[in-house]
Amino acid sequence: VAKRLEGKTVVITGASSGIGKSTAFEFARTAPKNLKLVLTARRIDTLKQIAADIVAEVGEGVKVLPVQLDVSKPEEVKAFVGNLPEEYRDINVLVNNAGLVKGLARAPEIAEEDINIMFNTNVTGLINMTQAILPIFKKRPEGGAGDIINVGSIAGREPYPGGSIYCATKAAVRSFTDALRKELIATRIRVMEIDPGQVETEFSVVRFYGDKAKADAVYEGCEPLTPDDIAEVVVFVAGRRENVVIADTLIFPSHQA
Ligand code: NDP
């Protein structure tokens, strides 16, 4: 796997915490030679610290570039590739991980602002990132090469009361991913989705607008997955032989089955 990932450039959205942050570390630990990581999120200071921590752990064989990027802002996404230093532009892997849930309310009560932020981040942000990076993949021989790894959710498959908007965003991610994979059939561009179940991250805290007590209550009586559990799968699918497409992975803790 290390050999296959050697020399690759990997872009991760939502790399400032949770699954995205773990995925950055996992790529660096797995392929510590000549890997280039572009870590993006809104919290640039956190990204800078993560970049420094990665290099401190695995050494300078991995180059890490923190980039402030709000995926819900189309103009920022459009400018993203062009603003990268030349040596980071030959992107091989895009991990579309940035996402959030805001407010758990019955459909009629959901605030318009929360609807917009969830769709603009989880769906439009992911689509815009994909459109920004696909031309780089398509320039490669045989119809193109590169990996798009979309982080969906079990919520996209099993909608629940109170989660209608979040579930709808993740169902949209699933449809987009499937359609894109079919559009790119017979190229070496792999379009893959990983759908986590319950994972303990800042996700719940964001969901309850920063109320940590409410967030912790989500995990009461169960043992959620760790972000590393998901990160290992992300790196696993990216590290397969080019012809192997692990299209769709559902991963949840045993209590959730
Ligand atoms: P976290 O809240 O820990 O991480 C979310 C990341 O997304 C942060 O790095 C945040 O960074 C980033 N982000 C949020 N909004 C934006 C934006 N507009 N632009 C750029 N980055 C943004 O949660 P997780 O690690 O759990 O979530 C990662 C993904 O996993 C999400 O897509 C989520 O839906 C999915 N997921 C999570 C599950 C769970 O139980 N935790 C279950 C199933 C799926 P910043 O605030 O710095 O911008």
Distance between the termini: 30 Å
Bound molecules: NADPH dihydro-nicotinamide-adenine-dinucleotide phosphate
Q: Helix fraction?
A: 40-55%
Low-pLDDT runs: none
In CATH, the topology is named: Rossmann fold
User: Which CATH architecture would you pick?
Assistant: 3-Layer(aba) Sandwich
Number of strands: 7
What order do the helices and strands follow? Answer: HEHEHEHEHEHEHHHE
How are the strands of the biggest sheet laid out side by side? 3-2-1-4-5-6-7
Strand content: 15-25%
**CATH homology group:** NAD(P)-binding Rossmann-like Domain
User: Number of helix segments?
Assistant: 9
CATH class reads Alpha Beta
Can you give a write-up of this model?
The chain has one domain: 3-Layer(aba) Sandwich (Rossmann fold), CATH 3.40.50. By secondary structure, the protein is α/β, with parallel strands linked by helices. The radius of gyration is 17 Å and the shape is globular. The protein contains 9 helices and 7 strands, in the order αβαβαβαβαβαβαααβ. It has a 7-stranded parallel beta sheet with strand order 3-2-1-4-5-6-7, sandwiched between helices. The protein binds NADPH dihydro-nicotinamide-adenine-dinucleotide phosphate (NDP). NADPH dihydro-nicotinamide-adenine-dinucleotide phosphate (NDP) binds next to α2, α5 and α7. NADPH dihydro-nicotinamide-adenine-dinucleotide phosphate binds next to α2, α5 and α7.
